[in-house]
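Worked Example 4.2. Read the sequence first, then its structure tokens.
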Amino acid sequence: MRVSGKIGGPLVQDHVALAEIELYGELMIAASAAAEDRLSSARIDEVLRVGSDPAGRGAREKARPAV
């Protein structure tokens, strides 16, 4: 078996996967706080900020400090 990279080497992050995980978490929080059994399409769009920002992440990106 061949393993590439070194132990303790640089970490590689998949930014798309991390963004998807964050959005999924936001949906889970919204669903757990909802009074109804299912989130409406409009509520899902609101949670995911669909159509609110061409970049799709406006308020969240502005609120985070640059790394």
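Now turn to a second chain, presented in exactly the same format:
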Amino acid sequence: MRKLCYVVALLLLFIPVVAAQGSQAMVMTITPTTEADGSVTITISGSLPNSCVDLANVSYAISDRDIAIAIETTEPDPTVMCAQALVDFTTEVVIPADELTAGDYRISAGRISVPFSYGDASPAPESTEAPTAASTRIPPVRIPDVCIIPNREQALFVDTDHNFCFTYPLQFELTDDESAIVALVQAAADSASTVSFTLVQSTDRVEVSQELRADLETAIVNEDGSLAVEQGTFAGEKSLVVDTLRGDVTSRRVYILGSDTFTILTLTPNPDLNEDASALWESLNDTFAFFPSVEDGQ
């Protein structure tokens, strides 16, 4: 199953009727379709804040393996009163085959980002009959009910391959980390104050036990002599939270003890010692959730 993960931030429902600054389109789904001639049709759907706002222009830009869709909206007349109700929209962008090469891309629009694999779908030579196979379409992904819709200062991460979601403050950005399912970073002006977050999963109980043992050996000692270890629940599952100190680096590690899969969250530095890390920890605590597999029809 291809991993589908995307990021979405929800604008407030009630938006004052004033001149718009940038796009007011709230993107909800991105659906890429590889056509028989090798071109790619990207269908974007979402909502506009009210009946006075409309789509003005939709364009795209390709940089390396990133396809960025820009959606411009009209500016409402400040003298006109508009019904404050979301208006659905659907629009398409077509990218010719000669602008793409085979490989993995990431398509982004608004605050949604989805992966897309483009195969060797170049048009057939003139001497060869054109392909008749149907277009390849990736179904749009809907936000599971258990996932918390973010406010305008947050973003939502949903992974329908590993079946979890959470919101996080917008000052954090997704970053590439081959060893993690998801990684976030918020770099401060002082690089020593960088806040990072990773999530990994494992089904190897021995490996996880060894990692947990190493964390317990470096656990912070509280003033009363006890270790900074807390057993409880996280996202409805049994968990163990360990605050560690290795050298001068502090971290909070959360071991979520599932029946078959262990999920490990790492937040550096310890949220008790850093305001930005604390904000992320609070968001994770409040919104992290697991959901049934999409294949189960949930």
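Notes for the reader: Confidence is low (pLDDT under 50) at residues 1-22, 121-139. The chain is about 10% helix and 40% strand.
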